[in-house]
Amino acid sequence: MNLQNYVEGKWVTGKGQPIELHNPVNNEVVAYAGSKGVDIASALNFARKNASPALQKLTYEERAKLLDAAVEVLNNNSKKYVQAALSNSANTAVDAMIDIDGGVGTLKYYAGIGKNLGDAHYISEPGMERLSREKAFQAIHVLTPLKGVAVHINAFNFPSWGLWEKAAVSLLSGVPVFAKPATTSCLVTYLMIKDVVDADIFPVGSISLICGGGHDLMDHVQAGDAVFFTGSADTAATLRSNPNVIKTGVRFNVEADSVNMTLLGEDVEVGSPLFNGFVKEVAKEITTKAGQKCTAIRRVLVPTTLIDAVADAVSAKLAKVVVGDPSVEGVRMGPLMNKSQQNAALKGLEILKKEAKVVFGDNNNFTLVDGNLVDGCFVQPTLLRCDEPLKAKRLHDTEVFGPVATLMAYESVDQAWQLAALGGGSLASSVFTGSDDFAVTAMLALAPCHGRVMVVNDAVINGHTGHGIVMPQCVHGGPGRAGGGEELGGLRGLKFYHQRSAIQGDIALLAKITANAVEI
């Protein structure tokens, strides 16, 4: 299959030698993609000139209905996407549905809340601000949609969720989408966009797709555009330093890699529901999508008195995980995305092993079901342990993007907060505790260096959504090395695609302006 690019309302085949997309189980080629020769500048201009005005003629409610129509198309074709995820990314059925349902579910969520925004074309913030002695002279703040294009550069691990969690907010805001998925896993993205395009739901140019390399994409963004990037911190830094990006001051949101953590409270007893739930969550985060999640647990902070029990319990869970070809019934974890990711994970693991010892895992000798270590990209689930983590450095700044996590002992709560902060800023954290006082203290200590803090007690032990699951109602992003960006968060997500402006004038005029807006 040759994956084309969709620009200016047309499907275009890239020129030259295409890039091969492989099945990471056996390295077989499943598709080809390339974008050489695509006029990216022209494609962006087409979307600005045609799609942006067409989308913004519609109200928020009308655009929400378009999202709903896309959801129906995607749901009707979900089996095809699951099969593509199996062949291109070697996802298990569960892992594929996390990605596919997560993406379509986010699209559905924004369609739902968008219908409540009514027939407005812009947003107002509540209240007026008095500016002078003259009572009539006041100010309001309004948010109007950007007039450019939203450039979405997505990572390889979530070809559906990465696409639609960004596109849902952008399209509801009235801003066209220019999607650049990671080429190595773009089959699912391509099939989804093709189905939506074929259904003729959105104005022409509302969605563009580049399946190959981005080439000179950053050279053509301009003021009024917005760039959302998900991927490595190194790549983000390269893109941000592009002279044109600097010159234009284009909006640039980054979600980068991070060493996310989970913490077990000192109050939790071995064998209790909270203890067992903690162990289950750690094992699940290590193995789900073979650890290839930006929110996956990398550091496991436990009291010194409990580290032996946690090590034994997590190891027992990991020992039951069947690794191999996800097409085989009973396999619970597949390979990493490609040889490059496998090599990077093994190299990172060697770095961690200089400061921690292996508790579970031996990549030189483990059993695969219908797979082999030569052609496949497998990495065994691995648990490490460090009893003096304050003396470590690389454990806190090295993310192994695979099925690897490190247990770290803490001797006091103050030490726990110190260890948490050594991550330098992360997307997600979680705390398992039965103490409300400890939970409040943990929230205040962890929130400044984490984009999300999930607190699990006995009341929600069986009903929480999971440490690594991103929910559209909540903001997604994190400070520091996590990129400093923020996405989603319900209606909060729309604000990045709008320009906030202070409007000063007569209160009677301002009242007319706000009367035509939707207040959020």
Tell me about this structure:
This protein is α/β, with parallel strands linked by helices and 520 residues long. The chain is built from 15 helices and 24 strands. The strands form 6 sheets. Strands 16-17-18-15-14-19-20 form a 7-stranded mixed beta sheet, sandwiched between helices. Strands 6, 7, 8, 23 and 24 form a 5-stranded mixed beta sheet that branches. Helix 5 (161-173) links the parallel strand 9 (150-153) and strand 10 (177-180). Helix 3 (78-89) crosses helix 4 (93-114). The two termini are 45 Å apart.
Q: How many separate domains make up the residues?
A: 2
Shape: globular
Number of strands: 24
User: Would you give the CATH topology of the largest domain?
Assistant: Aldehyde Dehydrogenase, Chain A, domain 1
- Report the portion of residues in β strands: 15-25%
Output the structural class. Answer: alpha/beta
Q: Tell me the CATH superfamily of the largest domain.
A: Aldehyde Dehydrogenase, Chain A, domain 1
State the separation between the terminal residues, measured CA to CA.
45 Å
Mean pLDDT: 94
What CATH architecture of the largest domain would you give?
3-Layer(aba) Sandwich
Low-confidence stretches: none
- The largest sheet has its strands arranged as 16-17-18-15-14-19-20
Roughly what percent helix? 25-40%
**Count of alpha and pi helical runs:** 15
